[in-house]
Amino acid sequence: MKKIAATLFGVLLISTMALAQSPIGKGGKQINFGIGLDGWGVPIYGGMDFGVHPDISLGFELSYRSYGRKYRTHKYNSSIFGVAARGNYHFNTVLDIPQEWDLYAGLNLGYYHWSTDNDYPWDDDSGVGLGLQLGGRYYFSDKWGINLEFAGGNAVSGAKFGLSVKI
Question: Is residue 121 packed enough to be buried (19+ CB in 10 Å), middle (13-18) or exposed (0-12)?
Fold first, then answer.
């Protein structure tokens, strides 16, 4: 019984791998969206990547988060809206990673607008953000995948996870 189960599992795994396509690639496009975790609320994000080389993608991302903070005896509600350009190098070719996986790292450059509902002491933090990201995706079908990314910089830091869809 164990041999039959192992054989069926192997056939299922191989057929799943055969259905998946390689990462974005030159001329490919994908939409990414999800939520994140960081010290400034729970961000939601969405964006798009464009393959400009088999191993390089360029794209953009929009994000929004809101949170409350107490400073001395006052409570302040803040929100941050961001728009960023992103560039990533995909390591699949150089590391010979299976095609259903996508491991990448890159840079982001954006503008982040921080606003509060009243006179928050640090309300002047709007401005340019520069950061790095490291992430990965697993495509469970020919179009859909899950993603996980870690980022750090002067405006963005933390983790985010969500879905990617090739279009």
Answer: exposed
pLDDT of residue 7: 47
Mean pLDDT of the chain: 83
Give the number of C-alpha atoms closer than 13 A to the C-alpha of residue 80, restricted to the C-beta side.
28
User: What separation in angstroms does the CA of 97 have from each of 74, 102, 125?
Assistant: 52, 8, 40
Sign of CA dihedral 88, 166, 96, 93: negative
Does the domain at residues 2-166 carry the CATH identifier 2.40.160.20?
A: yes
Cβ(115)–Cβ(78) under 8 Å? yes
Given a contact cutoff of 8 angstroms between Cβ atoms, the answer to whether 148 and 159 are in contact is yes
Q: Could you report the per-residue pLDDT of 119-135, keeping only the tens digit for each?
A: 655 555 688 999 999 99
